[in-house]
Amino acid sequence: MLSICIPVYNINIKNLYDALKRQIEVINDPIEIIIIDDCSLDHFKQLNCATCKESIYIQLLQNVGRARIRNLFLEHANYKNLLFLDCDGFIIDNNFIENYLIVIKKVPFDVICGGRTYPEQKPNRKYLLNWEHGIKKESKPYEERRKNAYQSFMTNNFIIKKSVFETIRFDEKITTYGHEDTLFGFLLKQKNKTIIHINNPVLNGDNEANKIFLQKTEDSVQNLIYILNNKEYSNSFIDKVKLLKIYSKLQKNRFITFYNIFFFVSKPLMRFLLSEGIYGSLIIFDLYKLGVLIKLKNKV
Fold first, then answer.
1. What is the rounded CA–CA span in Å between residue 164 and residue 111?
2. CA distance 95 to 65
3. Which of 15, 241, 277, 298 is exposed most, by the fewest CB atoms within 10 A?
4. Is it true that domain 2-207 has CATH number 3.40.50.2000?
5. Coil, helix or strand for 121?
6. Residues of the chain with pLDDT under 50
């Protein structure tokens, strides 16, 4: 019936694992949990190995990245429905798995997205950027996600039919953080696969410091450039990403050079404000990402 797939890297997954096990124990349908560790530190390997004795637990000898590790679950999953969860998530609904099973049994689908939510309490300023971005950009009600089903796809909490995943996999050239979900949602649309959005979120548990989140954002922009330059993906991909649409407009109106100069002058101030966690800084964050995109694109 259901294979729960959890890629792990340098996190103790006991709370997530135990919450899932408690729900599985009262469900009659066949369900398995598979954990693949992406070459974590020994400390986390030891903790998670002890936690997951009753499940399939695999340790990779070298780090393979966010895309390839998800593809590896195809080799180990025994059931036709794969539920992917990020290792830093928290289960907040005691009927979380049952909510998915109800949809699986009643509604035709290729992919089901449950959603993501963030803590309501505002964190310390040093962690504000990730939280504010998550609250305003990612933590959307399912009614809103349904309006843009493919663009709202996220990898942290979704079910995919194994038969579909065998034909549409994550691009393994994307090894760092960012936009592997954007591309996967785009490919699902290209292949006319059905995405259903439901109200079954997990709580995001890894709110990163502003400086770390900024660095990972720069990595994600680099991934975006790789996708943009890859001839396997059509030009219509630009229309699916707000950042690329803005870049395209600037390019058509010959404002790229002007913005590049503006970013060169203002980048230190932008980075300072974002690193210090100025609330309401998402506009600055968008300007910063655009500047990084233009800078990196000029190097290609």
1. 9
2. 31
3. 298
4. no
5. coil
6. none
| Cα–Cα dist 15/91, whole Å | 9
Which segments of the chain belong to CATH 3.90.550.10?
A: 2-207
What's at 86, amino acid-wise? D
Cβ proximity of 284 and 278 under 8 Å: yes
What is the token pair recorded at 2?
Answer: 């259901």
Q: Confirm whether pTM is higher than 0.90.
A: yes
Tally Cβ neighbours within 10 Å of residue 15.
Answer: 13
Distance CA 175, CA 136 (A): 26
Helix (H/G/I), strand (E/B), else coil: 56:
strand
Edge to edge, the sheet with strand 116-117 lists: 89-91, 202-204, 116-117
- Residue 175 and residue 65 in contact, taking contact as beta carbons nearer than 8 Å: yes
What confidence score (pLDDT) does residue 299 get? 67
Q: Rounded to an integer, what distance in angstroms lies between the CA atom of residue 117 and that of residue 205?
A: 9
What is d(CA 171, CA 36) in angstroms, rounded to the nearest whole number? 18
Q: What is the pLDDT of residue 279?
A: 67
Q: Retrieve residue 217's tokens.
A: 């954002």
Looking at residue 73, the DSSP 8-state letter turns out to be G
Residue 226: CA atoms inside 13 Å, Cβ hemisphere, count? 18
Which residues, in sequence order, are CB contacts of 133 under 8 Å at separation 6+?
Answer: 213, 282, 285
Residue with tokens 């998530």: 89
Cross-strand partners of 57: 35
Q: Give the H/E segment covering residue 81.
A: strand 81-85
225 with 257: CB under 8 angstroms?
no
| Residues 6 or more apart whose Cβ sits within 8 Å of residue 138 | 116, 118, 154, 204
Tell me, rounded to whole angstroms, the distance of Cα 206 from its chain centroid.
12
- Burial pattern 69-83, b for ≥16 Cβ within 10 A else e, equals bbebbeeebeeebbb
